[in-house]
Each structure stands twice: as C-alpha cells, then as structure tokens.
Design a protein that fits this description.
This protein is 29% helix and 45% strand. It has 130 residues and is of the alpha+beta class. Strand 5 and strand 6 form a beta hairpin.
Length: 130
Amino acid sequence: MQYKTPFAVVQAWQDAVNSQNIDQLLELSAPTIEIVGPRGSSHGHQVLRDWLTRAGLHLTTLRAFVREHVVIVAQHGVWRSVETGEVTGERDVVSRFRVDGQCVSQFARYDDLDVALNEAGLDYSDEIPI
C-alpha cells in the first residue's frame, strides 16, 4: 500500500504496533531502523521484532506535528502483560519518527513534548489536525 504523507506512514506504523502485526510493522520499517530510547539506541528489524513481542503496548495519538519527513506524536500509552493481558502501566509519551519514502527509518521515545519538538527542530506551528 502507498501512503501519501509521512503522517499516514506513521499512522499505519502505530496501527501495526497496536494490533501486534509484526509483518506489517516490518514492512513499514526500514531494515536498518534506529530505535532510540532512554537507554540508548539499537538498529534493525530483529530489535523491533523483540520490542513488539515484549512491549504489550497500545498507543492512542492525542496530537501530531509534522515538518517534511519528521513526525512527532503526543500519545497516551497503555502497557499490558503479554501473558495475562493485565494493565501494567499507563502514561502519556511522545514519539518522534523519521520517515524516508514509505518506511520509518527512526523511532524515538520522549517523556516531554517540548524536548521532542526542540530536538527535531519543530514547534507548535507544525501541529496538524488529527
């Protein structure tokens, strides 16, 4: 499937995460995708596959910001135990994506929207309706 905008790619990527659709997630991710988190960064499909199978994460987008190939989404995240389905955590997070063509080439997590916007070179004027 062809997506018309970087935001549409990110929406499809998030849908794949939420539905635990690893095949769709990998299709929407560059083979060398960089995943950036609080403990550093890792690369590649296997890291992404491992993350999805243990995260038990469902994200709801609350706000979105886009400039060229960078997309930032403010989200509400709910984590569930993969074994029991019980909620293990819940909080607001921010995700930054770099989209190249039809693939996400970088995914980074933040706790603060202002920090994410600043590091990406975006600001509140880049907000789009969702």
